[in-house]
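Q: Sequence in, structure out?
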Amino acid sequence: MTSNPPLPVRPLHTNQPRLPWHHFSMRFSSTPRGARLARRLAGERLDAWGIPYGCDTHDTVTLIVAELSANAVHHGLVPGRDFQLRLSAESTTLRVEVTDTGGDKIPALVDPSDNLDDDGEGGRGLLLVTALADRWGWYPCADGPGKAVWAVCSVHTVAAPSP
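A: Exactly. Output:
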């Protein structure tokens, strides 16, 4: 039996950095403390995946996690139920997904000129997500009450910030 020589491998040239496949999933209490912990753990996970603190991608994704987690706590709260954060990275894409058990409030963008709250706080989280993410959406949970809100971001650069 003769062996054939290996085929030459042509390197793939791209301007986008390629990430190996990563996945992180955890449940958090539906409290402001749970939302803060979700943001912090997401930041640590991104750093462990090679997306360092302080780079644009890291800051963008952690802000999206913070907004979606805060929305899950504020709008998706069902007493005694947690929310779940899922992060995944594949190739040049990062996906954030937050699932809560409050299925009665559908995520929707608001007009920033509307009087959102009496104190001017709130109502702008999805506007930030829309501005920061490449795309976002939501779907109802198939295995129980609630919904999942997701956002996808492209990784532009994965370089440590300069001091």
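The radius of gyration is 19 Å.
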